[in-house]
Amino acid sequence: MKTTLIMEEKMTSKLLNNIAKNKNIIVKVFRLLPMIIKSAPILFFVTIFISILHGLMWGVITLSQQVFYDSVADFFNEYVEVKYVILTLALFGGAHLVCHLINGVSLFLLDYMDEKINGVLSKHLHDKIAKLRIIDFEDVDKLNAIEKAELGKENVVKFLAIIEDVFIFYLPYFLFMG
């Protein structure tokens, strides 16, 4: 009984530490946001605009698909002519085409922006490393800190891409669909 209580306390403590670390990560990401925006401001805002447009286009696809299906049903009920069905099919296909073009542009811009941001953060990290004394590279703790900083730099770019995906792409889509 006592050992399970101790194990539960350890698990709770570990969980609380993980939550505290995650809050720390989010705070650090948002502290880096101005540096990231500063590294490529125009590209950053163009990417956001394209992602919003991409999310909205998925809503347009859904809407045009519904209009097409309704027109087919109306055609079979003899409410509309075949020309209208073809027009709605062209609208549906055009929406798909535009959406996939925007998707390609969005993916290209995101990859380009990730590389640019990664380069700026690497330069910032390497400038800090360059200030270290040679003897500091013998210290295992400092080497571990450098390795963690390098890994954190890569993860912050991935994290921002996920945040951008959720809030900039999916939010407009769900708002449009709502």
* Mean pLDDT rating: 81
User: What is the general shape?
Assistant: rod-shaped
Strands, total number: 0
Structural class comes to mainly alpha
Q: Count helical runs.
A: 4
The arrangement of helices and strands along the chain is: HHHH
Largest sheet, described in full?
none
Q: Low-confidence stretches at least 5 residues in length (pLDDT < 50)?
A: 1-5
- SS strand fraction: under 5%
Helix/strand layout:
Elements: H1 2-39, H2 41-76, H3 82-130, H4 140-177
Helix pairs in contact: 1-2, 2-3, 2-4, 3-4
Structure, explained:
- By secondary structure, the chain is mostly helical.
- The model is unreliable at 1-5 (pLDDT under 50).
- The protein starts with a helix and ends with a helix.
- It is built from four helices and no strands.
- Helix 2 (41-76) packs parallel to helix 4 and helix 3 runs antiparallel to helix 4.
- It is rod-shaped.
- The longest helix is centred in the middle third of the chain and has 49 residues, at 82-130.
